[in-house]
Structure formats: structure tokens, C-alpha cells
Amino acid sequence: MKPKIIYLANASNIHTKRWAVHFSGKYSITILSFEAAQIANVEVITLHSPLPGLLRYLWVVPIIRNLLSEIRPNIVHAHYAGGYGLLGALSGFHPYVVSLWGSDVYQAPKVSVFHRHILKFILKKADYLCSTSVAMAREAKLYVNRNFIITPFGIDCNVYCPSNIKKPSEEIVIGTIKKLDALYGVDRLIKAFAILNKEFPEKTLRLLIVGDGEELSRLQSLSCSLGLSAQIEFKGGVSQEEVPGLLHKMSIYVALSRSESFGVAVLEASACGLPVVVSDAGGLPEVVTDGETGFIIPQGDPAKAAMALIRLVSDAGLRDRMSNAGREFVLSHYQWKDKAKVMENLYTKIEREF
After folding, report:
1. Given this model, what pLDDT does residue 156 score?
2. What domains are there in the chain, each with its CATH number?
3. What is the pLDDT of residue 54?
4. SS3 at position 63
5. Is 189 helix (H, G, I), strand (E, B) or coil?
6. CA–CA separation, 290 and 322 (whole Å)
7. pLDDT tens per residue, range 155-197
8. Which residues neighbour 141 within 8 Å (Cβ) at sequence distance 6 or greater?
9. Low-confidence residues of the chain, pLDDT below 70?
10. Do residues 245 and 221 make contact, with C-beta atoms less than 8 angstroms apart?
11. What are the CB-based long-range contacts (under 8 Å, 24+) for 313-321?
12. Is the pTM of this model over 0.85?
């Protein structure tokens, strides 16, 4: 009989799905989630509560405890040290693993003293703590003096790979794939693109923005005010399956986030052979070798981002070198099978110790 792992997580999230599917061969995986989803070879139990916000998590704690008694898992693993982490902490189950994802550490504890105390409580209750980046682990240590296992999201380099179709030489497409949230600095990208556009009036430059969110109208207005409406395409939200094809349309990938836990989208772009320009926020510097696979620029400085873009647009040889280096960087350091092995080693360690 396979060992059993229960995930407390958003079952509709692409990263939850990837972890669950990967480990479903070796473990019996059950996801307890407020979000419904269907995942091959994985049981998803949808949680329901009549209460909003934090109260909905408290409502289902007795349900979680009953399910744990019935399923009798070997490991409980919460993906996200917020509501789902609180469920695990209140369940009283051990061994208990918590993975940090981003806003649970960078934003939530800054909302109020109450939120900070909740995060501290969750982190102290866990037997093992995982973080997708060194930068986020460092941030989390402001709330708990514990060691973190670094478990970055890996990239399937068979799916994310350079295109065989040659891009039109007369057109350069700058692109980003991000939720349109102020946090992710798409406004800074538009301002940098405006500077770039003035520098090369003779070139055909386009900006492709993929994603949706509450900032859409404001970003469209900013594009219009800068006279760039004809050159900027807002693609809207897309499925994960569409991402590689959209990356293949781009010449350069940009992520000028104000805060970022890791940078998996940047690695996907690098795996597809795109030079990248990123801010120095959070975990982004961990996924770029400055001057080799792309450029790391100070966040909040669209002019410096524009300078990096100007160098790339004006030098096709530099773009090619960074394209090759970026692909090799991902192959060497961030392949999915290698990163998943880190988590697999943790599970094996837990099975030995408990």
C-alpha cells in the first residue's frame, strides 16, 4: 500500500497540481481544498463553509480533524502559510509540513499585528518549513527562528523550450506574463517601453502584456496617455498550456515586480531561450545571472530598465548569447525533475523519522 500524503491547498492552482501529479505515482495523494478541481490519479475533497474570510477556515477545522482520522496520512503538507497553513496548524497533526509561496510572507503579516501573530503561530506549529526561494526564507525568519528547506519550482524543459520558428527580424516583441496587479510592476514596464520606443523610432517594437487583473483599466489608460496604444497588446488571461506559445512570440521577457517570492515565469522564459530583464525584488535575482542570462535592475527605476532594453534591442548578438545562456542556466539548475527530487528527499526523511 502506498504511503499517504494530504495536501491542504488550492487544488485549482497549477503548482498544487504539479506537485500532486508528480507524487501520485509513489504516494496516495488527497487534496483538501476550498477550490474544486479534477486531477488525474489524485483525490480532491472540496471543503465548504457558510462563513467568509478567516472564519471559513475555523469552521472546517473539525471536518479536517475527522478526515485526518479517517484517512490516517503519513504526512500533512500545507501549500501556503495562510489559511491552509492555519488549517494544518489547528489540526494538531504531525508530521506537518508548510510551504511558503509568497504573499503569505511578503504581504499578509504586514496587514496587522493579528496577521503577524497568525503567521508566527503557523510557522511554529510546523515540523518542517519549505520556501521556494532563499529570499523568502530570509523574510520568513523575521517571524520565526527556524531553518527552511529551499524547494524552488522547477521547469519542464521539454515543454518550455526554444521555438524552431524564426522570428521576423524587423520586429522585436517585449513581453511579460503576469497577473495585472500593482505588485508586479507592469506600469513600470510600460514606462520603460515608452523610453525604448523613443530611442528607436525606426524599429518595429511591440509590447505584449499577458494576464488579467484589477489594474487592466489603469494600465490601458497609461498606454493611451503615452501614445502607445497601437504598439501595446493586452492579451488577457490565458491557460498554462498557452504560455509556451506566447513566449515563442517574444524577443525579450521583462518582470519589474515590486515584490516577488521567486520567479518561475522568468525561468520559463529563459528555458524558451529569451533574454530577461528583471527587478531586484525578492527572489528574482536568484533566477537570473546578471549580464549573462539577462539584466537585474533596481526596482522602481523604469529608466534603468529601459537602458537594459536598449542594449538588448540594439545588439542581436547579445540577445543570442543571453538566449543560449538562459536555456543552459535552467537546464543546469532548475529542471523540474531535479527540484521535485528535493521535496521527495524531504518526504523520505520524514517517513524515516516518524
Report:
1. 96
2. 4-153+336-353 (3.40.50.2000), 171-333 (3.40.50.2000)
3. 87
4. helix
5. helix
6. 10
7. 999 999 999 877 776 799 999 999 999 999 999 999 999 999 9
8. 148
9. 169
10. no
11. 313/172, 313/196, 313/199, 313/200, 313/203, 313/205, 313/252, 314/200, 318/275, 319/251, 319/252, 319/275
12. yes
Strands 4-8 and 28-33, sheet pairing: parallel
Residue 245 exposure: Cα atoms within 13 Å on the Cβ side: 6
Sheet arrangement for strand 4-8: 43-46, 28-33, 4-8, 75-79, 96-100, 128-131, 149-150
Alpha-carbon span 127 to 94, nearest angstrom? 7
Q: What is the pLDDT of residue 251?
A: 97
3-state secondary structure of 150: strand
Cell of 130: 519549505
- Non-local CB neighbours of 281 within 8 Å, separated by 6+ positions: 185, 257, 258, 259, 260, 299
- Residue owning grid cell 523550450: 161
Number of C-beta neighbours around residue 337 at 10 A: 11
pLDDT at position 1, please?
85
Q: Is the dihedral of CA 45, 50, 55, 58 positive or negative?
A: negative
Cβ(212)–Cβ(238) below 8 Å? no
User: 318 and 275 in contact (C-beta within 8 Å)?
Assistant: yes
